[in-house]
Design goal:
486 residues; eight-stranded mixed beta sheet
């Protein structure tokens, strides 16, 4: 058995032709859908980027216990388990958050890994002196934007772009190891995450007569740009989606040319979607997790099943990849993993689960049963709320001294292998205005775009009971029940 995982970042399924988009050019996603199972009810778990990768590694949700942070000493990484059982695992990524404090030990779980520099505001090329002035630029206009301007100076030709380098390294691995068995390759592209910076060959697919300020990097905020500016940003995103499609096609070509479909699993997925003006918002994390963010594209070809050009409506998440891989390689699945192997779902249209939970630490706690989406908000304020960790780091730096001075030693959770936890007050931040967005209930059957929340006490009470059950199954900290008024 061999496995290729193609992992994109911030890929909105509504921009892909297998999910009904008729104007974005994604012919290779169509090819993929015809040669795999397309999942219609794939949802995020823990968000955003690094928490989602924590789900991928451990097969369990983490957003109720801590925010963005490294792998913990007690975590069971599927890639470490595979490695320890003689399966070679290799990561190729341009996701710069792996090289920061809060994501610094994910890549070390693989047998080997390669990095590609230059995405977003990556601290890449040395620059001494005055930084570019971004103060009057549309969208994001801070130090990270200035760094990105510097990075782009080194990306003139298509082969200079990180996505090209990532997939070139992926194809290099495949060429070297196409005759080998027992390996897992993860090709991970930061695209189409913002900024929407694509080579001209992809921009030319979506011509427009926009003549205002450069705008390919929306900030995480409500939309206040003109309709012309919004449309321009959407076209920039579309060009990046088509770049992703093009490079996906190179992997499919290689599998065709080398007859890999008989013994190679292919998984294509993302960490979350992206808002492009829907609900009056850009991006993610600052608003409720509407389906444009939470309902994700997910494709699997399993050579054991040989099921292709079919769809599945079962509820699935990233946490299902770990147990699926372990079963495929005949390795025991740890009890701490909450995900389920998708083998029976793919082969026999078997069941997965009746409901799933998802969210961001300190935001709504969300639940869907496939028909309804319930977004539970805190009753007053956003406390009590703590991070439980033995690796106290945020995205780019360790927890600050003030927070760590307030740390307590807490009892172990069921999944921490008897290790007590640091219980640290959560960061003081307000990702969502809960006065504007309280608890929400949507009926996806009658309101697939989630434009009209419903008020139905009977349905809400059922969702509350189900949410409390799933939180207990997650060994959720007690204060999360208090925070949510449960």
């Amino acid at each position: 058995m061999r496995t290729i995982i193609v992992f994109f970042d911030s890929l909105n399924r509504r921009m892909l032709s297998p999910y009904g988009c008729e104007w974005v050019k994604t012919p290779n996603f169509d090819r993929l859908a015809k040669h795999s199972v397309t999942f219609d009810s794939s949802f995020v778990g823990s968000m955003p980027c690094i928490p989602a990768r924590h789900d991928l590694h451990t097969g369990r949700l983490n957003f109720l216990h801590r925010s963005w942070g490294p792998m913990e000493p007690y975590d069971n990484s599927v890639f470490s388990i595979l490695k320890d059982n003689g399966i070679y695992t290799h990561l190729i990524s341009d996701h710069m958050h792996y090289w920061e404090d809060g994501g610094s030990n994910y890549h070390t779980k693989y047998s080997s890994w390669e990095i590609v520099r230059g995405q977003e505001g990556d601290l890449w090329k040395a620059h001494v002196g005055e930084f570019p002035d971004t103060s009057k630029m549309l969208g994001r206009n801070d130090y990270v934007r200035a760094r990105d301007i510097i990075n782009r100076k080194y990306m003139k030709e298509s082969e200079d772009f990180p996505i090209h380098k990532v997939f070139s390294l992926g194809l290099e691995f495949l060429k070297k190891n196409v005759e080998q068995d027992n390996w897992v390759l993860q090709i991970e592209s930061f695209d189409p995450h913002e900024p929407f910076f694509a080579h001209e060959i992809y921009k030319s697919l979506y011509p427009d007569d926009y003549a205002s300020e450069e705008f390919d990097w929306p900030d995480y905020k409500k939309v206040d740009e003109t309709p012309e500016q919004v449309q321009h940003a959407i076209l920039q995103y579309a060009s990046l989606v088509s770049a992703c499609d093009d490079y996906l096609g190179k992997v499919l070509d290689f599998m065709d040319e080398n007859n890999m479909w008989d013994d190679t699993m292919l998984i294509v997925c993302t960490d979350h979607g992206y808002l492009l003006g829907e609900h009056g918002w850009w991006a993610k994390s600052r608003q409720p997790l509407y389906n444009e963010i939470s309902n994700t594209p997910f494709f699997v070809w399993d050579p054991r099943c040989k099921v292709q050009n079919e769809r599945r409506s079962q509820l699935v998440q990233l946490i299902d990849i770990a147990p699926t891989l372990l079963e495929a390689y005949h390795i025991d699945i740890p009890d701490t993993m909450q995900g389920v192997s998708l083998y029976d779902c793919i082969k026999n249209n078997g069941k997965t689960r009746g409901s799933i939970m998802f969210g961001i630490h300190g935001c709504h706690v969300n639940l869907t049963d496939g028909r309804y989406v319930y977004m539970r908000a805190p009753l007053e304020g956003n406390k009590p709320l703590y991070d439980y960790t033995l690796m106290p780091a945020d995205m780019k730096k360790p927890f600050n001294e003030e927070r760590l001075r307030q740390a307590e030693l807490a009892e172990p959770f069921s999944f921490t292998k008897g290790m007590p936890q640091l219980k640290v007050p959560a960061r003081e931040w307000s990702p969502i205005d809960f006065k504007e967005y309280g608890t929400l209930l949507f009926d996806l059957k009658n309101d697939s775009h989630q434009l009209n929340p419903i008020l139905d006490s009977e349905i809400e009470n059922k969702m509350i009971d189900l949410l409390k059950k799933m939180m207990r199954e997650n060994d959720c900290p007690e204060e999360q029940f208090i925070r949510l008024g449960l």
